Amino acid sequence: MLVVGLTGGIGSGKTTVGEYFKSYSIPVYIADKEAKALMNRSKVIKRKLIKLFGQSAYEDGNLNRPYLASKIFSDKSLLSKMNAIVHPKVASHFKRWLKKQDAPYVLKEAAIIFENNLEHQYDYIITVVADKELRVTRVMKRDDTSIEKVKSIMSNQLSDEEKIKKSDFTIINNDLQATKQQVEEIHYALLQKIK
Fold first, then answer.
1. Taking a C-beta distance cutoff of 8 angstroms, is the pair 46, 59 a contact?
2. CATH, residue 45
């Protein structure tokens, strides 16, 4: 079974694209969502994160995301340490999930495939891009956040141009009808590669 990476900068519309692939009965694993769930569920992760960030890492047994975000935002080494705790657990969770799937290929949605040099884990990679202004508007609306915060996150991510260069497929997600068409084309292109 092929593992296809689905990536793109914040607000590019990876989740929307993933939903379109699901309409072709393609399973989609959302790494970010699973990481958050594991950070709340796994006793090992909880213990290690409390050791790294202190008791404030959790509030009433739940991950204190604003607190963690404020810590890692200004300290890249803390972000790396947190990723070293969480990513291996997500990777083994993904392997278990993968064994249960029955499809020609699966999508694994992950925002920072290239930033973490993880491209070798995928058979193919699809990058979703969209106009910068549109992305900023989407994220501000979705997360109820400021333009400065969104632009700051964007500045820490690889540029679309660099992602496109490293990808096998690109989806331009400015117009939903055109996006659906591109998903259909890529879906059939991937099925051809499997034959």
1. no
2. 3.40.50.300
**Whether 103 contacts 190, CB under 8 Å:** no
Place of tokens 């106009």: 131
Cβ proximity of 89 and 38 under 8 Å? yes
Domain that residue 172 falls in: 1-27+105-195
Name, in order, each residue with C-beta under 8 angstroms of 163's C-beta and a sequence gap of 6 or more: 7, 8, 9, 114, 127, 129
* Contact (CB, 8 A) for 147 and 58: no
pTM, full prediction: 0.90
Task: Phi first, then psi: give them for residue 77, nearest 5 degrees.
Answer: -70, -35
Among 127, 113, 115, smallest CA distance to 165 is for: 127
Give tens-digit pLDDT for 173-187.
999 999 999 999 999
Q: Examine the pLDDT at 100 and tell me if it is beyond 90.
A: yes
β-strand partners of 8? 128
Q: Is 7 helix (H, G, I), strand (E, B) or coil?
A: strand
CA atoms within 13 Å, Cβ hemisphere of 63: 19
Closest C-alpha among 3, 8, 2 to residue 179: 8
Q: Which residues of 128-143 are buried (b: 16+ CB within 10 A; e: fewer)?
A: bbbeeeebbebbeeee
